[in-house]
Every structure is written in C-alpha cells, then in structure tokens.
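Before relying on records like the one below, remember that each one covers exactly one chain. Contacts with other chains, cofactors or solvent are not represented anywhere in the record.
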Amino acid sequence: MALKTEIYKDKRGEFRWRKTGSNGKIVGSSSEGYKKKADAEANAKRRSKSDKWDFYKDKRGQFRWRRTASNGAIVGASSESFKSRKGATSNAALMGYKP
C-alpha cells in the first residue's frame, strides 16, 4: 500500500504529520506538535531501531499501537483501533515496525 504523508498545522499552530493509505484512511499520525515544519517532516520519516513499539487494548477492547523514542516521547500512534493484534501489527508495519 502506498502511503501519502501530509504535514499540516494544528489548532495551536504547530506542525503535525499523518499518513493515509490509498483508500484515504489515516494509518498513523504524530502524537505531538512541532514548532518547525522540518521537525515534523523528520519525525514522519523516522526509522530508528531504538524506538519501542507497544501494542495494547484500548477502552473498547480493540488493539492499537504507539511508537516511543528512547527519550520516552511518543513519536507516533495508530489513528484507529483494530479487532485483532494482527491488524494492529500489520498497520504498524506500514509505519516502519519490524517484528
């Protein structure tokens, strides 16, 4: 699936990123805003092996993922929930997760 990366300004005037699939669904997004557009772009392209990937159940009992940098900052998260862990890991793989 080809992903499209969009950099945009949020309500606070900070830059964020989101990635959408060819079906138009958002598959991942930044968890924080950035003052500089270049910082948001760098985070969207991030491929650090030291990042930690967490898969968890949300309040509805569905699976989600989040990506945490070595400094403890959450640098990405699923924008939707999945019925199975496999669905969440497949979605995370689109964002760079390697089991």
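Residues 62 and 81 are 6 Å apart (CA to CA).
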